[in-house]
Amino acid sequence: MRCWRGLVHPLLLLTNAGLRDQLWIGDQHRDDLFALEQPQRPFLAQTVLELTGRLDARGEEVEPLVLDQPLRRRLEELRRSGLDVAVVALLHAQRNPAHEQRCAALLRELGFRTVVCSHEVSVMPRLVPRGQTALVEGAVHPVLDGYLQQVQGALGAATPLRVMTSSGALQAPDRLQAKDTILSGPAAGMVGAIAAARMAGFDGVPVLGFDMGGTSTDVFCVACADAQALRQVKEQTEIAGLQLLAPRLPIETVAAGGGSVLELQGERLRVGPSLRRSATGPGLLSRRRTAHHHRRQPAAGAAAGGPLPGGVRPVRRPATGCGGGAASLR
């Protein structure tokens, strides 16, 4: 879910007048402050509408909310154009959600299928992280909800379904928020690694985890695999330049994953996640298609089919499907 392009649902954003670009600009935090070129963070809203009306920091109304006929007609036009997901992110809504609730009621009346309010995803102050979290929820929720419905349908209504969250906990689908699943894969890897370490008798020593998936390579390190190891939860994280108010385990992304694509951009190679055409797994060692992270050695000068750095040779076996190939290193 960290690869936004083409995988999330287009949406409408309603925010206060004068703040059209606030969630795109963010707080101007830069990883490399003095870099001449700064990467542009993704902005998940396809259309932004500004609303007249404002609350102060105590949640008291200083300007009435205006939901007039021109706004209604514009929303109807957008709904007819195919937009059916809307996010409402207003100043100080965590103190008083009344304005957001009135907007949500109008959107649902006009037929918007999914409506997300920023006060529903977090009760924390600061519009930028709360609004960006709401945008992620609105973009990912329709995709995740549709998938979980398919899974539940295949399992049958009598089978209980639980979903892993970024904090390492299991949650029922009807109580799940999509923003809490953004790092669920790495979290599941950490939960499994801690359990395996304890079962093997290594609960009193430091544990280092390394998890290469299709999208990213993630690592964690804990002092020991005791009961406290899975309680070290962070309340905020940053994904693709977006601030998310979602509890997560202390996992760090250090590299691209096995399904990442090597792309030539000008005179440089760029590595990044692209799940649309990638087939992950060791089976890629014997496939000659798009250059993926698993097969990056030829770009570094190693002969295709020859030994990897250090004299290690891949032993190829028939692939069993996307991500199911069997390979070993000697």
Structure, briefly:
With about 325 residues, the protein is of the alpha+beta class. About 25% of the residues lie in helices and about 20% in strands.
Can you give a write-up of this model?
There is one protein chain. The two termini are 34 Å apart. The chain is built from six helices and 17 strands. It is globular and about 65 Å long. The strands form seven sheets. Strands 2-1-5-6 form a four-stranded parallel sheet, sandwiched between helices. Strands 9-10-13 form a three-stranded antiparallel sheet, with helices on one face. It is 23% helix and 22% strand. It is an alpha+beta fold and 330 residues long.
Task: Write out key terms for the chains shown.
330 residues; alpha+beta; four-stranded parallel β-sheet; three-stranded antiparallel β-sheet
Give the helices and strands, then pairings.
Blueprint: E1 11-16, H1 22-25, E2 45-51, E3 54-55, E4 61-63, H2 69-80, E5 85-89, H3 98-109, E6 114-117, H4 118-121, H5 127-155, E7 163-164, E8 170-171, H6 184-199, E9 207-212, E10 216-222, E11 237-239, E12 242-244, E13 252-256, E14 260-265, E15 268-273, E16 314-316, E17 327-329
Parallel strand pairs: 1-2, 1-5, 5-6
Antiparallel strand pairs: 3-4, 7-8, 9-10, 10-13, 11-12, 14-15, 16-17
What is the number of beta strands?
Answer: 17
Instruction: Please state the CA-atom Rg, rounded to the nearest Å.
Output: 23 Å
Oligomer kind: single chain
Binned strand content:
15-25%
Average pLDDT taken over every residue: 81
Largest sheet: 4 strands, parallel
Class from secondary-structure proportions:
alpha+beta
Q: Give the N-terminus to C-terminus distance in angstroms.
A: 34 Å
Strand order of the largest sheet: 2-1-5-6
